[in-house]
Amino acid sequence: MPLFLKPVFQERIWGGTALKAFNYHIPYENTGECWAISAHPNGTNIIENGKHKGKTLEAVWDEDKSLFGVSGDAKFPLLTKILDANDKLSVQVHPDDTYAQKYEGEYGKTECWYILDAKEDAEIIYGVHAKDQEELDEMIDHQQFDALFNRVKVKPGDFFYVPAGTVHAIGEGILILETQQSSDTTYRIYDYDRTDKAGNKRDLHLEQSKSVINLSTNSPNTTPKHEVIQGQNYTQFVSNSFFTVERWVMNGKLTYEKPNTYCLVSIVDGNGEISINNDVYTLEKGTHFILTATDQAIIFNGEMTMIISYV
Fold this sequence. Notes:
Blueprint: E1 3-6, E2 8-16, E3 31-37, E4 46-47, H1 57-63, E5 78-85, E6 91-93, H2 97-103, E7 111-118, E8 123-128, H3 133-141, H4 145-148, E9 149-153, E10 159-162, E11 168-170, E12 174-181, E13 187-190, H5 206-212, E14 225-229, E15 232-239, E16 244-256, E17 263-276, E18 279-284, E19 288-291, E20 298-310
Antiparallel strand pairs: 1-4, 1-19, 2-3, 3-5, 5-12, 6-13, 7-10, 7-12, 8-9, 8-11, 14-15, 15-16, 16-20, 17-18, 17-19, 17-20
Catalytic activity: D-mannose 6-phosphate = D-fructose 6-phosphate
Cofactor: Zn(2+)
Binding site for Zn(2+): 94, 111, 168
């Protein structure tokens, strides 16, 4: 039986109300993040069905790893979010596993973005214009940010792989689905001198940022692979040791062979159904669930777009 998950919503200074488009009853007028598939302690989902109904995904992962076809004491590796950038996010960087485990006690944060929607001329920051560490440090110290940051125009359907160490920021008017390592460590470099409701600026982490920025990552660097399978449009955006992320654009029926013992599934548009072991479940835009190790004879049917990820 799949695990259907109740989203967790996070209030953010840059958030808005665009997540209502996913049939969510959002709790804040500046809801920035939907943690859609998460076992992270800062926002773990509640399971909505089956024998584990009412438990957190974090607890079920810890107590019943056979459900996922894994063993050992590793933490749940992935986190799926939908982000509403009603305003621009801070310019930031995330550490890799080595640095994060040493200084933060958790995974590093390699991530990727699928652009669900974007206003005309929307842009992200991706990478920096600095030839070496000395120039990078000097430009940060002197706040030469207009010259430092590399800007890239985006449109719906674009995909960006953002390895740990990449300076990045989501711009205003962008809605994305983010697949990332299960980490909540962010180092801010610049936040446009914004203040919160109490008039306080958010913390910056300049020394940590200087330590983890990878100067070799300055341009989006994936080549999606497209094919038609059983009449359905399939795209593999990225596949590496951190995650594989795929998109299925469905118009009909698909007999799905799981590529991993468990897979994370998000319906980002349309609606349909899934049959698993002859049990049928309704799917609609905004539904998120995990196909477990026990789920077999899987058939998707409908007109919908799905993002599927796994390790």
